[in-house]
Amino acid sequence: MVDEMQESAVKNLQDRMLERLSKVIDPELRIDLVNLGLIYGLSMEDNVVTVTMTLTTMGCPISTVLEQMIQSSLEKLPEVDEVKINIVWEPAWGPDKMSQVARMTLGYYN
């Protein structure tokens, strides 16, 4: 029973984190990071959230801005004391990572 309650609490927190991240809009593409498929994972230990993500391109000129937006968004959750960003390049990002809504918005109809 305790495990189920903990699992439910973790799921609820992850859902709230994804909801907050879905409000972080890429200023160039004007689509949120979740629908763009840039968020690969979320983990939390001792009230420190680690966001594992990628960018659409290496050397993305707005990567610092995106990191600040992510941190600001997630730090508003009462359970979160600190946010760390882990940018990875594998698996590589591509249009296939986007949601159907994002693909349609950007004109990818594959």
Automatic annotation (TrEMBL):
Signal peptide span: none
Top-level taxonomic group: Bacteria
MIP18 family-like domain location: 16-84
Protein known as: Metal-sulfur cluster assembly factor
Lineage: Bacteria, Bacillati, Bacillota, Bacilli, Lactobacillales
